[in-house]
């Protein structure tokens, strides 16, 4: 997956940098949650088609996670900053409760068809688009706004792909 770099990279000492790292930490956490959700659903869903669809969705979440980690690493100055894992661990208490994976796992596990699994995934992708777009409108820093808009664009594209699969 190709990810466009934000138009400007903040210096490690800037307020924008701290805000960008917080946004990235939340985005990485959200993708990890999605991957975990779809992996479990792939193991436990009732229908074979639903399990296969969830397995593919877990792979796609992994792709998103790798893209975010690559973006995060592009901001990194190894002489001054910590690794993303250290930052996530340190900032775990500051991660937002992101209302994206709201479908209870028990509901997702009852899916017996690919269409049902895709419907759940589409709902989650739309929530991710709304979350990132809404956050982009509320941040003051242009670097963070660009980053959030890129995340919304990434999620919109995934949403479009899922909707096409459903047709």
Notes on the structure:
By secondary structure, the protein is mainly alpha-helical. It has one domain (15-166): Ferritin, core subunit, four-helix bundle (Ferritin). It has six helices and no strands.
Descriptive terms for the model:
single chain; 72% helix; disordered N terminus; 6 helices; Ferritin
Question: How would you summarize what this structure contains?
Answer:
The protein has helices at 15-44, 48-75, 84-90, 105-109, 114-138, 142-166. It has a single domain, classed as Ferritin.
Task: Describe the protein's topology.
Blueprint: H1 15-44, H2 48-75, H3 84-90, H4 105-109, H5 114-138, H6 142-166
Helix pairs in contact: 1-2, 1-6, 2-5, 5-6
Could you name the CATH class?
A: Mainly Alpha
Order of helices and strands: HHHHHH
Apparent shape: elongated
CATH architecture: Up-down Bundle
Helix content: over 70%
CATH superfamily: Ferritin, core subunit, four-helix bundle
DSSP strand (E) fraction?
A: under 5%
Structural class by sheet pairing and helices: mainly alpha
Predict the CATH topology: Ferritin
The main β sheet shows up as: none
Count of extended strands: 0
Mean pLDDT score, rounded?
A: 75
Q: Give the helix tally.
A: 6
End-to-end C-alpha gap: 23 Å
C-alpha Rg, in Å? 16 Å
Low-confidence stretches: 1-13, 77-88, 90-95
Count of domains:
1
